[in-house]
Amino acid sequence: MTASDQYATVRYLVDDVPAALDFYTTHLGFEVLTDRAPAFADVTRGPLRLLLSGPASSGARATPEDSADPGRNRIHLVFADLDAEIARLGEAGLSFVGDPVSGPGGRQILLRDPAGNLVELFQPA
């Protein structure tokens, strides 16, 4: 198994790589794998590898303009205590998209990164 086989990789297009890098490492527990700001950064959290691609990166340049807006897709991060995470992130000045939602699988709330990409915080039932 190679190092890249250890991760599921997602690319998020961001307009400010240092701001995105700070958001994911400071607030959501990601670790820096590669920092080539301002072009891109590569962070990991468990088996998730998140490529933060700025406007100068090849990933962003290869994306058609009409496809570059943040969408409804999102990464999904699991937490044991969603209320504690909401409180912690709220105290850090972050705001959420809506209120927590409960369903048969658990509870979730959405957060936006500095570029507008969605992040789902989830607590299993």
TrEMBL record:
Pfam hit, one: Glyoxalase
Xref: CDD domains: VOC
InterPro entries in alphabetical order: Glyas_Bleomycin-R_OHBP_Dase (IPR029068), Glyas_Fos-R_dOase_dom (IPR004360), MMCE/EMCE_epimerase (IPR051785), VOC_core (IPR037523)
GO BP terms in the entry: L-methylmalonyl-CoA metabolic process
Chain intervals for the UniProt region annotation (Disordered): 52-71
GO molecular function: dioxygenase activity; lyase activity; metal ion binding; methylmalonyl-CoA epimerase activity
Keywords: Dioxygenase, Lyase, Metal-binding, Oxidoreductase
Stretches assigned to the VOC domain: 6-124
Record protein name field: Catechol 2,3-dioxygenase-like lactoylglutathione lyase family enzyme
Native organism taxonomy: Bacteria, Bacillati, Actinomycetota, Actinomycetes, Micromonosporales
